[in-house]
Here is the input.
Amino acid sequence: MNLATFWFILIAILWAGYFVLEGFDFGVGILLPFLGRDDTERRIMINTIGPVWDGNEVWLLTAGGATFAAFPLWYASLFSGFYLALLLILAALIVRGVCFEFRSKVDSPRWRANWDRAIFAGSALPALLWGVAFANIVRGVPLNAAHVYTGNLLTLLNWYGLLGGLVTLSLFTLHGALFLAVRTSGELRPRAHRAAVRVALAAVPLAAVFLAVTQYHDGKPATDVTAALAAVALIGAAYAAFRGWEGWAFAGTAVTLVLAVATLFGDLWPNVLPSSTNPAYSLTVDNASSAHYTLVVMSWVAVIFTPVVLGYQSWTYWVFRKRLTRSDIVVPPATGTETVEPVGGRS
Amino acid sequence: MTVLELSRWQFGITTVYHFIFVPLTIGLSLVVACMQTAWQIKKDPVYLRMTKFFGKIFLINFAVGVVTGIVQEFQFGMNWSAYSVFVGNVFGAPLAMEALLAFFLESTFIGLWIFGWNKLPPRLHLATIWLAAVGTSLSAYFILAANSWMQHPVGYRVVPGTHRVELTSIWAVLTNSTAIAAWTHVFVASFMVAAAVLIAVSAWHVGRQSQLEVFRPVLRLGLAIMLAAGIATAVTGDVQARLMDSQQPMKMAAAEALYNTSDSASFSLFTIGSLNGSQEVWSVRVPDLLSLIATLNPHGTVQGINNVERAYQKKYGPGSYEPVIPVTYWSFRLMVGFGSLAALLAAIGLWLTRRRRIPRSRWFYRVALWSLALPYLAATMGWIFTEMGRQPWTVFGLLTTAQSVSPGVTASSVIISLTVFTLLYAGLAAIAGWLTVRHVKAGAPDETERPDTPAPLPVFQY
Here is the structure.
């Protein structure tokens, strides 16, 4: 295996990590208006991802930075080509990011309701668009001989791209519902559990059709296996959700996302951005990569520091492993807007 | 406007905006870490109130800094894809390191700090804010190493037959003299921004005689930091000037609008005349100062714009290598002027508040409040100077800005993104500003006196 392939795999791992981690952040944001019946419940939901969402988003920044360093031509063609789609994603991530911080700073129902809407939109839009983007990357986009994208935003919104978008949207929502079922207690937990079962009814057929179409078009024997395993993991997750085994179901959707990313990147290899105009114009692992020395330097950095990052991020999840309840939410004193008083007060 | 012009405006607007929030998070994260450390050591609740109060201001700013930072990383590829292809081998490395080494550190430990108040042991919790603060400063180092490579490329070679550069020494890129000087300058200047916030906020309260036990010490602290950081910023900027004189002589000449090479060059504090300084009606000049800044010798030779231009034309081929002189000339002066004024006012403020004195004059508090703008303006002018002074290059001597722009992106796309970012950022600034003002006015209440909250620990949860 040459270093360029190693970096292709590493970038696939970063995307897999991003989808598994920010996937449930998006899911929680999407479910916020549907599952949170009062402000305390919505705050519980936001606080389940509160300590971790920012660190989860860094997986995206690292994937972007790694692509820039290891495959400059891929980074250049992809980011300039998907210009307006990325603009939408950026705008959504900006709004969503400040929502979490700003929402709690003013104790007014209207202020919070507006931010809740923004959290929903800022989560749903990227959840949809990442699927659109990846479906198009695997299928190929119009690239000219200079590897410059010649399509526009509508080129990306083809039926296959949109199907991919619905898959990530539904998978992330399911993943988020299961995360809430694992991280909350009280009334919220069974509600999240029921939502997961309902979302699974949409996610399973969508993902199955998408994976089948993808494998029919761009499949390889090895990725047929990962695609089949992804489908099995998803069905297993849906079954576990149905039976109420929340932890297993959450693990199932996480495995599904990892295997789905593995399938897409496996189908993509040895290309990184295929040209639908002429296969000769495609960007590949070899023609898009950085020179050997850069890859050597970056490999050392990745090998040394990735375990450290994984260590302290995992520790964060360990610190915040306890299920959140109403009593964990500090109600600002002297306000009459809360419908339910915290049970038992602060302990 | 062309795609190039639109893209430049977008990069300028988003970057200047991003850097409104960044220096405050760099400076204030360390100040808050010190406050919390003081609380841990002295157990005086006043330090806890400071930590909580300024921690909240820090978090509001941090949020905006983080989300606008994502745009920064993405827009190299989006708007400057030709640049990205050219430099990716070299420039991508510090960017990826920034994400892996710094962004993870700051974002993860900020999360632990916000939500860990009642969960982590106090010492461990204190460590989280320090680690987050280290992350922000480390992040600044990597991005400044990347930027310094554009100002002064080192550790690379141009690949023959392709339009790309290759990294030959990561060590050279990370220990670039330009990067070390730039980081030091930015790091200490960040404390001027943080100090301005400490001063303005505490002056607002001290002027109203409210919560003096918290805000009087903070006012003194802010004034002291401002003076110290102001001196350090001047010293580090001075070091940068000499590097600039040897590495980017055109930028040095453009800073003074010095057209012809001269010995014992004077420095003009102020000029009235044609905007680009070629014709002068009236000016205030300090003799020999420019030579002294650039060469450490009052009679040293400073190269003029015309002379450098001819040398560059010989080296790089026909064309113009002049930056926009009115911009470089005035941004340089305003940077120095705003920064010096802030430090000077801080020195006066320290004198007026000596030995527990509380000034009566309303002017003291007015000036303290409005001087908040000075370090922000100075920092903005500094970036405008250093980036505009590098023009017409993106990578000095290797790639021009005109060659850097994305070939496949249309003007209408950039108009859309420019509009979206400008409106979105204006909205964010308004909300973040309003929230901060609201929080400042509420003050830092003494929670131990409230009977309904037995645990006085601050909680920042969402």
In short: Residues 29 and 133 of chain B are 5 Å apart (CA to CA). Chain B touches chain A through 79 residues (CB under 8 Å).
